[in-house]
Amino acid sequence: MLTETITVPxxxxxxxxxxxxPPFPNDVPCAPLLKLSFRKLLxxxxxxxxxxxxxxxxxxxxxxxxxxxxxxxSILKDVDELFTIGEQLFDLDGDxxxxxxxxxxxxYFGYKGYGKAVIEKEGTLDRNEFYNVSKDxxxxxxxxxxxxxxxxxxxxxxxxxxxxxxSILSLLLAHLNHHLHLxxxxxPSLHRLSAPSGDQVRLLKAPPQDPSTAQPALxxxxxxxxxxLLFNRVGGLQVLPPPAAPDQHPEWLFxxxxxxxxxxxxxDAMSKFTGGLLRSNVxxxxxxxxxxxQVPKYSVVYFSRPExxxxxxxxxxxxxxxxxxxxxxxxAVPSKEWxxxxxxxxxxxxxxxxxxSGTEDVGRGK
Length: 366
What we know:
The protein is an alpha+beta fold. It has helices spanning 38-42, 46-58, 70-90, 94-98, 135-138, 149-152, 155-179, 186-189, 268-273, 335-345, 352-355, 360-363, and strands at 35-37, 61-65, 110-112, 129-134, 200-206, 218-221, 227-232, 237-239, 253-254, 261-266, 283-285, 297-304, 311-312, 333-334. The strands form 3 sheets. The chain has an 8-stranded mixed sheet. Strands 6-11-8-9 form a 4-stranded antiparallel sheet, with no helix packed on it. It has a two-stranded antiparallel ribbon with strand order 13-14.
């Protein structure tokens, strides 16, 4: 397992808002995520690229420091504005927000209310609300969905954030493509900004919970797509690193939010594309530690997913991805179908087995 430790910056830079919340405590166990420099990756630094590949194989989670680059500064500015929009959005009346729940139309875009999804197969309900904004909607690749005024009036901001997030994640895909010895642009070509896909922006709020009845806001899961770009200021995200030895029991560890950094993780698609070589790791969201448990937890996320018609199966053309074993058969499901059945399967009344048919067991080291 990766063992690099993180030094918390003494100056708050990159993201506003960290100074207005209680500090993340120093006495809770935290995951040893590598911190990678976007600037170095942009410059083609070979050592930094090697670290990206190792992080993607070992844990599937890492920090991406976005400071010291024009594109990084741009997305950090957009994120600050989106945090403010998220606060205003979730302050709307419940009936108003509910108008934009499109689950009845078999769509995972729009609003999901508090307690409207299950967080484990046993049927426990979630403790958060979120709003999914479709990349295809914002970029006019699909008909526009109805939206609250606070979102409709800020489509240019969402477009800016989507373009920056996609560009950043495309760079990561290009580096991974190189290490997998795939033909040039294989991975980026499966994630074109101009092609229909399940890419989305998510604004999320998890309110404080009564300590006597607190439970996870989001249960143990892996992400559906390729790469996730997460920005948060309040803790609560936990990962379950693989045990260092077969006789060790895995332990949930917090991921400390860092100013100026995104938290990046790989999803099921990257595991499927590489025959499990790259790791889609299990994670969950629990009440924040320490005094942070007293404040709402807001997040801004970008989910990158393969284009709708891309088949999720191991890629051909390289000599690094393990080949299928003799007699081994793998599922080849279109990306759109995979994302839809997993997303809708976790909504109340959905097909729970389909909602939890990802790579969670692989992510636990099973």
